[in-house]
Amino acid sequence: MTARLATLGIYVALLLATVVMVVVSRVRPAALPRLGQVVTWAMRRRTTQVGLLLAWWWLGWHFVTLR
Amino acid sequence: MDLAVRLARTLVREPAVPVLALAGIVQVVRAYPVDIMLFVGSLVLAVVLRLRPGGDRLIDSTPAPATRGVILAASGVAAAYGLGVSFVPQTTWWLDACLAVPGVVAVGVLVGAGRRPRSPVAPPEPATPPRWWAWPLLGVSVALVELFSFMEQPDARTDSIDHPTLSTVVEPALSSQALRGLALGLWLLIGWWLVRRIRAWGERS
Q: pTM of this prediction?
């Protein structure tokens, strides 16, 4: 297996883990809180709000622009 | 040992400033001036907010679920935005300007919310969701893979073929106008979701 395939495999595994966690949090909310619940709870601090806004904006900008 | 435990707990419960500092260091290594300004500026803003009397903790005030009409309106605006901006070439400054508009609005809401009257005493901590750490753990895992891939690059501005970063993997898909428009629409909806919460979390106790 090449290093490239291994890296891509890790990304796919992380994507699958995200899907599984989204499903589990919907089906069994007592076992795992939903992502939205955790983000809302994390936003109890203004500093976290700054970090989340930056992450949101920068990811959109970084992925879409090509310069 | 106690100090190390206390520092670790603080890092887990209040990670924004240290995470912004670490991300800022990565941006300095990447040597993109706009990214450095963004991350350092955000770090300064976070530190200013953290140092205010009473700290940066807010009153528990999760917004009420949006009505169907509001969701439809937001989806319509996001769809129009995604469609319109997908026509803007990816290599022009016009695209930066189109992306800057929602960001400036969101920062305006954040700064405006931070100016509301507040008590110098920090409000009580809201209830902690059980197993909340599972989601940040996933995010940290993605960040570590990204960091490893970045460190494997020949230099800060040349992608590694063996260890591509997430943006290198995703960029070909986003060269499709339809997928780019969809991604931009979703991105705007996520921003709207965040801004609703920023406006809801209160300052006065």
A: 0.89
**In chain A, residues 1-40 whose CB comes closer than 8 Å to chain B:** 2-4, 7-8, 10-11, 14, 17-18, 21, 30-33, 35-40
- Cα A35 to Cα A41: distance, rounded to the nearest angstrom: 10
What the block records as the tokens of B126 is 């809201």
List B residues 8-27 in contact with A (Cβ-Cβ < 8 A). Answer: 14-17, 19-20
The reply to whether residue A47 touches residue B14, judged by beta carbons under 8 angstroms, is: yes
Tell whether the model's pLDDT for residue B21 goes beyond 70. yes
Query: What is the pLDDT, as a whole number, of residue A25?
Result: 97
Taking the C-alpha atoms of residue A67 and residue B89, their distance in angstroms, rounded to an integer, is 11
| Distance between CA atoms of residues B86 and B6, nearest Å | 48
pLDDT confidence tier of residue B175, bands split at 50, 70 and 90: very high
SS3 string, B122-136, reads CCCCCCCCCCCCHHH
Flag whether the ipTM exceeds 0.95.
no
Tell me the C-alpha distance between A61 and B93, whole Å. 12
Q: Does B42 touch chain A (CB under 8 A)?
A: yes
* Structure tokens given for B155: 């230099």
Q: Nearest by CB to B135, from A38, A51, A62: name it.
A: A38
Closest to B190 (Cβ–Cβ): which among A37, A45, A56?
A56
